[in-house]
Write a structure and sequence with these properties.
mainly beta, single chain, three-stranded antiparallel sheet, 7 strands, four-stranded antiparallel sheet
Length: 84
Amino acid sequence: GSLGSAVQYDGELLPALKNDVLIASEEGRGILRLRPDESGTRLVATEWMLRDRIGGVRLIATAADGVIYVCTADAVGRIVPGPR
């Protein structure tokens, strides 16, 4: 499938995603997460996030506060930590 925009997450709000590359995918209907090793030179895992839960993702971006924004064909959403 075709891939859209990509970001490398460097925020502090979602530490589990630190240094991961997040790729918007409209045809994949979610976000492709690429996890590098600690040196950042080798890919250790890939996984789909929110696949078939929010529809095709056209755009992904991060804000200075660490919030991840995603844009689908008909909505803009935020990825933030859940309740603790």
